[in-house]
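User: Can you recover a sequence for this backbone? Please restate the input before giving your answer.

Assistant: Of course. Working from this structure:
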């Protein structure tokens, strides 16, 4: 749903540009690190030591929870959220004595909803859900990247490996947030649509089964509107996108935003409202047997179907409020 047709303040635009550049930090930081390392041995030795650490024993820091999280409350996140704006909507109470898996849909191109609603306090998550220690999952590759790793840790992010998710969810009151559709879903992003990759995704259900965590559906209306992606179905570009996705777990859809100075095309995300609706939890009974057994597979399929029904009900309850300009209803395409 579009917001009023003003273009935002300069400060809001700068914050939105900062949000976009977050996805360029990895190659920028690697390029800067390599450049500085080759300038002198005085730089190369400490840099090499740092790289060995973050790609070795430093990976254990991801689940140690000893890093500071004050950056979550920085003003830049609130300014960024106000640009679109991003709003967080609570529809049910969540007990701080339970564990939760927040399943976010859709991934979108930039996943700006995650930065504003769950990675930071821009939308007041801890005020709406007191006592819930939420950690957003991202690719493990990000924690092997110099400097980007420090940003991720300061915001409380974790990698999405099975071992990390199980470790995080050991204690009550903890939650993880996962973009279930992943990179494959980002390639389906189109304005005013909600095409999801969910039919074949049951990994988040298996995590819930092993930990007894409740699964919380999160529907994001407007995420696909802030960046106009262009679908590439064949040819060399499509092959490159697929190759990058297989090799790294992520990909970069082709597309555009708007210009900083009122231009129709640019890298600044479009100023469209993003409404993040957090549904009620689907209770999952912990399974202590072999997660690969036939019984576990059947239980996983059962909970998966129940989750899809719950997600559909959440969509039906809010589509006319936050998705009135849709060109099609929510679809589970894969």
């Amino acid at each position: 749903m579009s917001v009023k047709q003003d273009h935002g303040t300069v400060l809001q635009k700068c914050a939105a540009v900062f949000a976009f550049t977050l996805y360029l930090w990895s190659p920028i930081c690697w390029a800067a690190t390599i450049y500085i390392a080759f300038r002198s041995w005085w730089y190369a030795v400490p840099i090499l030591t740092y790289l060995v650490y973050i790609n070795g024993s430093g990976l254990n820091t991801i689940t140690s929870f000893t890093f500071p999280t004050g950056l979550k409350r920085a003003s830049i996140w609130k300014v960024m959220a106000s640009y679109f704006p991003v709003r967080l909507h609570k529809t049910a109470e969540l007990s701080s004595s339970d564990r939760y898996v927040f399943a976010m849909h859709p991934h979108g191109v930039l996943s700006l909803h995650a930065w504003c609603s769950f990675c930071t306090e821009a939308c007041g998550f801890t005020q709406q859900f007191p006592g819930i220690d939420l950690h957003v999952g991202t690719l493990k590759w990000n924690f092997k990247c110099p400097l980007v790793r420090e940003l991720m840790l300061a915001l409380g992010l974790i990698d999405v490996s099975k071992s990390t998710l199980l470790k995080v969810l050991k204690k009550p009151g903890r939650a993880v947030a996962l973009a279930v559709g992943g990179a494959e879903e980002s390639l389906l992003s189109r304005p005013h649509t909600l095409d999801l990759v969910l039919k074949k995704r049951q990994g988040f259900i298996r995590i819930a089964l092993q930990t007894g965590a409740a699964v919380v559906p999160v529907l994001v209306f407007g995420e696909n509107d802030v960046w106009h992606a262009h679908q590439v179905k064949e040819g060399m570009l499509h092959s490159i996108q697929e190759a990058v996705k297989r090799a790294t777990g992520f990909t970069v859809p082709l597309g555009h935003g708007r210009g900083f100075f009122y231009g129709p095309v640019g890298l600044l995300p479009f100023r469209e409202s993003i409404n993040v609706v957090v549904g009620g939890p689907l209770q999952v009974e912990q399974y202590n047997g072999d997660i690969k057994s036939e019984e576990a597979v059947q239980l996983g399929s059962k909970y998966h179907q129940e989750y899809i029904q719950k997600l559909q009900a959440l969509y039906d309850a809010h589509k006319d409020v936050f998705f009135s300009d849709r060109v099609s209803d929510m679809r589970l395409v894969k």
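That completes the design. The chain has a mean pLDDT of 87.
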